[in-house]
């Protein structure tokens, strides 16, 4: 499969692009559709259906979802509306296309891409120690790999720190909403990383999400035992990784 459509449903927009899943290369620019208040199941499905229908040909489709996805069914997502609990999202996407499809958690998708093509490449084998990818965006997504294998649906963005959800401390949205400077927000991210590190001891932490492009602004405030690196695929990691989860088409 050398062409697929990657779709990344985030907390504020849906990003999509054609991808070569064999190389991780983007074959088109990333299109971004703002979600604004369109967060219900019907709204999101309509937007995703539109993105798929706008392709000039039938392509395999991979979709990253900002919440837990088990066997194609979603759990409630913090940054979407109610109605997603136990929703058969895989079935709904299947009904939009005759090609093969995959649906998975957005951070898991970003992690797959970073392990295969990006910052985690060196750890992506039988000798690879634990790698934790953390996406800092509207919320916090986490994906854990050991020896290159993903432990899916890890929701470490919602651990409690000082009695509050960690997303309220270290998501990238906190920096913008509270007008924090890089040092103040970097210190909060550091608090989060150190808390996580006490629980998991990863060898490598990859920081993903759009803010990874500004890694140089806050990396000096991060003091961890693990090596910390920005996602190499930046904002494209989620949609690239979603295409890696697509099962091969039946002959
Ligand atoms: C969700 C995660 C998701 C992350 C990033 C969190 O609020 O619980 O499942 O990966 O946001 O979208």
In CATH, the topology of the largest domain is named: Nucleotidyltransferase, domain 5
Assign a percent range to the helix content: 25-40%
Net shape: globular
Q: Spell the H/E element sequence.
A: EEEEHEEEEHEHEEEEEHHHEHEH
CATH architecture name of the largest domain: 2-Layer Sandwich
Q: What hetero molecules are bound to the protein chains?
A: beta-D-glucopyranose
Query: Measured on Cα atoms, how large is the radius of gyration?
Result: 17 Å
* The number of domains: 2
Number of strands: 16
Note poorly predicted spans.
Answer: none
In quaternary terms, these chains amount to single chain
CATH classification class of the largest domain = Alpha Beta
> Beta fraction of the residues?
25-35%
Q: What would CATH call the homologous superfamily of the largest domain? A: ATPase, nucleotide binding domain
Q: Output the number of helix runs.
A: 8
Distance between the termini: 13 Å
| Main beta sheet | 6 strands, mixed
**Average pLDDT metric:** 96
Broad structural category: alpha/beta
């Amino acid at each position: 499969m050398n062409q697929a459509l990657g779709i990344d449903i985030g907390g504020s927009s849906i990003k999509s692009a054609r991808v070569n899943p064999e190389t991780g290369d983007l074959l088109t620019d990333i299109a971004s559709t703002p979600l604004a208040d369109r967060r219900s199941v019907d709204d999101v499905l309509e937007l995703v259906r539109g993105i798929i229908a706008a392709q000039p040909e039938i392509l395999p489709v991979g979709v990253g979802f900002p919440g837990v996805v088990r066997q194609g069914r979603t759990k409630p997502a913090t940054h979407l509306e109610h109605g997603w609990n136990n929703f058969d999202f895989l079935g709904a996407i299947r009904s939009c296309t005759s090609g093969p499809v995959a649906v998975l958690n957005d951070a898991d998708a970003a992690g797959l891409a970073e392990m295969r093509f990006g910052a985690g490449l060196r750890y992506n084998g039988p000798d690879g120690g634990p790698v934790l990818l953390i996406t800092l965006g509207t919320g916090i997504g986490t994906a854990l790999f050991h020896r290159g294998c993903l432990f899916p649906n890890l929701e470490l963005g919602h651990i409690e720190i000082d009695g509050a959800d960690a997303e309220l401390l270290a998501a990238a949205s906190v920096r913008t909403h509270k007008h924090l400077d890089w040092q103040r927000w970097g210190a909060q991210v550091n608090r989060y990383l150190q808390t996580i590190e006490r629980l998991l001891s990863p060898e490598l932490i990859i920081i993903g999400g759009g803010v990874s492009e500004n890694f140089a602004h806050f990396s000096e405030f991060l003091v961890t035992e693990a090596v910390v690196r920005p996602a190499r695929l930046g904002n494209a990691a989620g949609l690239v990784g979603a295409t890696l989860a697509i099962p091969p088409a039946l002959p």
